[in-house]
Amino acid sequence: MRVLFVMRHPGYVRNFAPVLDELASRGHDVHVGFEAPTARWLDGDPLEPLYERHARLSSGALPAVGRTRRSLLARGLRSSRDYLRYLDDAYRDAPRLRERAGRRVPRAVKSFPGVRFHSVRRVLAGALSSVERRVPANAAVVRYLGEQRPDLVLVTPLLALGSPQVEYVRAAKRRDLPTALAVASWDNLTNKGVLHELPDAVIVWNDAQREEAVRLLGVPVDLAVGPRLDRADGPEDAVAPRREHADPEQTGEDGAEPVRGDSDGRPMLQSHGAIVSSRRGAFLP
Questions:
Q1: Residue 12's closest CA among 224, 247, 172?
Q2: Are residues 84 and 181 in the same domain?
Q3: Do 184 and 57 share a domain, yes or no?
Q4: How buried is residue 78: exposed, middle or buried, by Cβ count under 10 Å (0-12/13-18/19+)?
């Protein structure tokens, strides 16, 4: 099986190295595609230790989504829908989250008549989603999937505000390819964006996150899969310093809490957690 793992940048490898290791060990061809070629706080290539063990593992840059009218429109629509979430009562005391979410949102959305009312926001969010789905598929993404010819597409983090990774999930589903979101870290989902395209599985880190995926993101219970314990044993080399897990895209560039592993710094998705099931059945043998 050929697995394509779409990541925002190489910093996410720290959280998923055991999964990549296990997939390659099982005989799968694994290609990791990065939106950004590096993360400024990384020293070296985090995939290097895995390259030494696995000839089946490769990586490369994803095609540039670009700043075409089409890509800007699609991202603007997604960002606007993400922003509406932060107007809910649950975020009344979170002005910094709301300000961050609104940085790239058109003024017309922020000042939409009656936007402070939940019923109006629900209708507006539905309209934004409907228009966004009518935007033509990204030709570069479609072409890239045709070149890679994966049997399975994994993505992370996907939930960043306005994330272009939605394009990969949607294009893969149109090709009838199994898809899965590997949630980037153990921490909660309350400060992330909307799940604009439901994959075949959402891989969570613990039971608390499973409940949040269902409650906050509308993920069907049977699609939120992952370890049933709050801790997992794994290889010591999976441990990464806290700084190495920082990701400004997810946490904001204002010094907010960085992304990290569990209380010991170990990622929850260890090798045995790489088996994902969905309504398509088990697709990672």
A1: 247
A2: no
A3: yes
A4: buried
Nearest Cα residue to 4 out of 22, 28, 21, 26: 28
Q: List the pLDDT tens digit at each of the 285 positions of the chain.
A: 999 999 999 999 988 999 999 999 999 999 999 999 888 788 889 999 999 999 999 999 999 887 788 999 999 999 999 999 999 998 989 999 999 999 989 999 999 999 999 999 999 999 999 999 999 999 999 999 999 999 999 999 999 999 999 999 999 999 999 999 999 887 668 888 999 999 999 999 888 889 999 998 999 998 988 764 333 343 333 323 333 333 434 433 333 333 333 333 333 344 334 444 344 444 455
What domain count does the chain have?
2
Q: What tokens were used for 170?
A: 């949607």
**Same domain flag for 154 and 263:** yes
> Per the domain annotation, does 108 fall within a domain?
yes
The identity of residue 261, as a single letter, is G
Side chain identity at residue 98, one-letter code: R
**What is the reported pTM?**
0.81
CATH for 11 = 3.40.50
Cα–Cα dist 46/278, whole Å: 30
Owning domain of residue 58: 2-65+150-274
Report residue 152: phi and psi, to 5°: -150, 140
3-state helix, strand, coil in the chain (%, to 5): 40, 10, 50
- Give Cβ neighbours of residue 74 (< 8 Å, ≥ 6 apart): 132, 135, 138, 164, 167
Residue 222 belongs to some domain of the structure = yes
CB-based contacts of 209, cutoff 8 Å, min separation 6 = 183, 186, 188, 189, 226
The answer to whether residues 87 and 130 belong to one domain is yes
Q: Let me know whether 54 and 74 are in one domain.
A: no
Based on the domain organization, do 127 and 198 belong to the same domain?
no
